[in-house]
TrEMBL record:
It comes from Symbiochloris irregularis. The lineage of its organism: Eukaryota, Viridiplantae, Chlorophyta, core chlorophytes, Trebouxiophyceae. Residues 52-202 form the Cupin type-1 domain. GO terms for molecular function: manganese ion binding. This is Germin-like protein. Belongs to the germin family. Residues 1-22 form the signal peptide. SMART domains: Cupin_1. The keyword Plastid does not apply.
Amino acid sequence: MKTSTFAVSALIVLGLAQSCCAQPFMFEAGRFEAGITEPAARRMDNFTGFVFDFNNATAQDRTPNGMLQQNQVAQNPFLSTLPGDGNGQTIVTMGPCAGNTPHTHPRGSEISFMLYGSIEFGMVEENAGMNRLIFENITQNSTIHVPQGVLHFSHNPNCEPAAFLASFAHKDPGTQTMWGSMMRVPTHILHSATGLPERLISGLKQFPLVTAPGTGGEACLRRCGLSFQTANHLTPLNATDLVP
Ligand SMILES: *[C@@H]1O[C@H](CO)[C@@H](O)[C@H](O)[C@H]1NC(C)=O
Ligand SMILES: *[C@@H]1O[C@H](CO)[C@@H](O)[C@H](O)[C@H]1NC(C)=O
Ligand SMILES: *[C@@H]1O[C@H](CO)[C@@H](O)[C@H](O)[C@H]1NC(C)=O
Ligand SMILES: *[C@@H]1O[C@H](CO)[C@@H](O)[C@H](O)[C@H]1NC(C)=O
Ligand SMILES: *[C@@H]1O[C@H](CO)[C@@H](O)[C@H](O)[C@H]1NC(C)=O
């Protein structure tokens, strides 16, 4: 088949596929239009989630060091009515010396806007990017782009609070916290990955997993006159599970 014929055929097939099966959701003139596939849209919830007021949002994670407030599908079913993967948001508020632990979002790229204060933001590239570390100060009014699935983290190195608004190209981007995930890996596997003595690895596994903003950075804590705070949302790992 000649390339041009193939291209035309492909366009026709694509066109047929779209007219046959795609049922895009449309928001128009304050109404849901026909062709909605998502159950939440069928509930016709009168757009109660069309405007999401973060002043009314509860914190999904709150520690003495900061909090995460989400406008994602679990909090706002309206996001299910958006076409494709939809979108979602999290406001991350970080107190002095607070850190957002290293994590990835398995289902959505992130675009984060610095609302106030400033943070050190880091991201580690995938293997094809030579695991390059990107580590920068992000100040008010700057935006950060984090590709889906890429490891990233942040820390407020100042004695004033900071906050950023994370927006995701998914209604439910998910979060995988790296320390907790790594500590679930059997000790002998981590031994083969690192060469560290298994006794040392077992020792590391006794440390609790911080699932919400933690506080750290010894220099920052000294400068701001703070002590290391073990926050109220620490989830102790089950040592019985962890030590083979
Ligand atoms: C949506 O609005 C209609 C008309 O005002 C009302 O009858 C219905 O109960 C509302 N639905 C919800 C889920 O509030
Ligand atoms: C926020 O909460 C206040 C007080 O409960 C309520 O009056 C207001 O309607 C809420 N706003 C939204 C957008 O839900
Ligand atoms: C951020 O700025 C501070 C103050 O200038 C500096 O000490 C620190 O090294 C910077 N951090 C990064 C990641 O560039
Ligand atoms: C950020 O933008 C706002 C609005 O334009 C402005 O008032 C503020 O000074 C900016 N902040 C910085 C640090 O430039
Ligand atoms: C920890 O794991 C062991 C073995 O699987 C189990 O018996 C125990 O109930 C678990 N403890 C907690 C607190 O989950």
